[in-house]
């Protein structure tokens, strides 16, 4: 067998020593440490549903630093070079300096729109990285940022997903009974509000989050989360036809978790790193699997874009 690369992020190295004694609800159900293996690559990872993993990954600057080892390849399907290059292109856009989190996500969406038509047997595997490099040059000139600023503020999809969030059993008991009950009441309100009231509620949350987003390490937490999704999921996936829905899922995570931060801020919760980790673990365990991706009869890339262009 050929020798292949085996990659382990720093947060997994630390989690290996801590997860065996973790008593969180996720670890009681599912082992937190996992590996994704192909015939040409191995990626060692861990589930963010685990509260220990979440703490070790989100706000640690070097959490996604990779350790590479050489191991023997095994029989099976290889990781597609196109997918690996599309994955690396998204990572490169996340790591660029000087962009806000919404601008980074917008740039990734533009990349996916550029390369999603490449699904054919003769596709040039260098296209995703070349497209990402072209976008980096446009970012240097401020053109991507300018295009993002021109995006219209479309609220229909935001309020649709806020109402869907209101139906989820999102309890964050780690924050205490008062915070958990306060969040449940807010979610119930969203579930039954009219569209007009939900729009007002959305604007209130945007302002609440704008006031709270000075949280130390806020940007670091989001960059680490998005890098994790790229590494763990090999985002945007194997099939070009699925790029739009994969992107919508990433934007939904950003929109919905920020909405949770805002709701918790209105209940008086201090949005420190522990609270943020609790929100992320709960969302990954309860929110992401059950929210669904509504069929809006439009390109999911466009729906994803609409979830970014607010002050959340």
Based on helices, strands and strand pairing, what is the structural class? alpha+beta
**Helical segment count:** 14
- Going across the biggest sheet, name each strand in turn: 2-3-1-4
- Which residue ranges are poorly predicted, with pLDDT under 50 across at least 5 consecutive positions? 213-217
**What distance lies between the first and last C-alpha atoms, to the nearest angstrom?**
49 Å
User: What sequence of helices (H) and strands (E) makes up the elements?
Assistant: EHHEEHEHHHHHHHHHHH
- The chain-level mean pLDDT equals 90
Main beta-sheet strand count, sense and barrel state? 4 strands, mixed
Let me know the number of strands.
4
Total domains? 3
Approximate shape: globular
Helix percentage: 55-70%
Radius of gyration using CA atoms only: 20 Å
**What is the strand content?**
5-15%
Characterize the structure shown.
It comes from Pandoraea pulmonicola. This is Lysine-N-methylase. The protein is built from 14 helices and 4 strands. It is α+β, with helices and mostly antiparallel strands and 312 residues long. The protein has 3 domains: 70 residues, no CATH class; 69 residues; 151 residues, no CATH class. It has a 4-stranded mixed beta sheet with strand order 2-3-1-4, covered by helices on one side. Helix 5 packs antiparallel against helix 12 and helix 12 crosses helix 13. About 2% of the residues have low confidence.
Q: What is the topological layout?
A:
Elements: E1 3-9, H1 10-18, H2 25-29, E2 33-37, E3 41-46, H3 51-57, E4 66-72, H4 81-94, H5 101-115, H6 127-140, H7 143-149, H8 156-165, H9 177-192, H10 195-212, H11 218-233, H12 243-266, H13 273-291, H14 300-306
Parallel strand pairs: 1-3
Antiparallel strand pairs: 1-4, 2-3
Helix pairs in contact: 1-3, 4-5, 4-6, 4-11, 5-6, 5-12, 8-9, 8-10, 8-12, 10-12, 12-13, 12-14
Protein name: Lysine-N-methylase
